[in-house]
Amino acid sequence: MKNVLFVLSLAALAVASLAVAQDSGPNKVLQKARVGGEGRFDYVFADSDGRKLYVPRTSVSPRVSVYDLDSLKLLAEIPNVNARGVAVDPKSGHGFASSNPVAMFDTKTSAPIKTIEVQGGPDGILFDPFNERVWIFSHRAPNATIIDTKDGSVVGTLDLGGAPEQAVTDGKGHMWVDLEDKDSVAAVDTKELKVTATYGLEGKGGGPGGLAFDAKNRILFATCHNPATMVILNADTGKVIDALPIGMGTDGATFNPKTMEAFSSNGDGTLTVIKDDGGTKFSVEQNVATMRGAKTLTLDSKTNRVLMIAAETQPAPPPPPDAAPKGDQKGGGRGRGGIMVPDSFTIVVVGAK
Question: What domains lie within the chain, and their CATH numbers?
Answer without folding.
Answer: 1-34+163-314+337-353 (2.130.10.10), 41-159 (2.130.10.10)
